[in-house]
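Appendix B, record 7
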Amino acid sequence: MLQPRIPVNPLPTGTVIPLAQPTAPTTAAVEPAQTAVPAPTVAPRTTVQLTPGSALALAAGGGAVVLVVGAVLVSMLLAVAITGVSVALIAVVLRLLVRDLNKGR
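Structure tokens (predicted):
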């Protein structure tokens, strides 16, 4: 029941099946294409008017975003550096302990 059944490919018979011959194209009655209806026009959008106060607020907001992203990236870099230093310090301590064990102290 659980044995796979491999299908047997039939042996070639030697008979040649001819290729399909193309038929001559027939001309059918073609309906004329309908003219496309122009798309309805959309009312133009109003442009954003920046006053000097809003431009200043926008620049201050962008600067704040840059400062926050920079602080996050610097803190992540500092965390990686501290982790690397602590791993190196642990490696030195372990090496000294293993050396002391090998000397038999």
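Remarks on this record: Residues 75-105 form one domain. The CA atoms of residues 85 and 91 lie 10 Å apart.
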